[in-house]
Design brief:
Shape: globular
Strand order of the largest sheet: 1-2-4-3-5-6-7-8
CATH class: Alpha Beta
Distance between the termini: 34 Å
Helix content: 40-55%
Mean pLDDT: 93
CATH architecture: 3-Layer(aba) Sandwich
CATH topology: Rossmann fold
Number of helices: 12
Length: 275
Amino acid sequence: MPNAEFRPVSLPDAVLDVEVHGTGEPVVLIQTALTADEFLPLARQPDVRDHYQVILYHRRGYAGSSPVQGPGSIERDALDCQQLLATLNIERAHVVGVSYSAAVALQVAATSPGLVHSLCVIEPPPVHIPRADEFLAANVRIVEDYRLHGSAMALDRFLGRVIGRHWRRDIERHVPGGLAQVEQDAETFFATDIPALLAWRFGAEDARRISQPVLCIGGTESGPWFEEARQLILAWLPHADNVMFAGADHSLALTHAPQLAAATKAFLGDHPIGA
């Protein structure tokens, strides 16, 4: 996989690592939590790379972007996305998010509808589902693991559950160099992103502000929490298209990049900005 060519882009109060490549309608890939380059496999797929202007960036606290100052929040991450597109003189874009960054994408679409032409949410986080207490309690335990035992053990326990016991091998196979990046950025994930996600308040009233075309993507093996999250998004956004990848789990952005690129290209082709 080719190396990403990130460059610093200055926002009013931060600097973000950004890569912009390709031509065509702009597609912004919002970085998720922990795995900074989880969207690199998607960005390198010909269905995306050869047809769109792809904006890929690292959020605060990741790779070469500015460190986080103060508590993290989904709202601030959404504002960073908005300010980044303004700085790049992009008035309207397709927005894609996975897991944590699906929450950011939803927030951007709800608060800046004129900026977001279409929205693709992949495996959105299950923070507002009927069984949210289970998910929240599990995240509290993850943070406690980090506090008591440090990032190495906390990473092993968390990614072992999410990706599987071979998570190191799997990350490195799909994103060479990604393992070292995950270990470097772990503090941001445990100390900033998880608390930000647990504090995020977003409901049906917020979702009603999203009238843009929406694509919701999930994996059949992601488990009941993410299935409930997908069903909630479809209830909030009944106009959304729904795509499921057979055999995929929560790491589908890494493991099913060609299928994800094909589904994304088909969706964006049905909803061109020019129209």
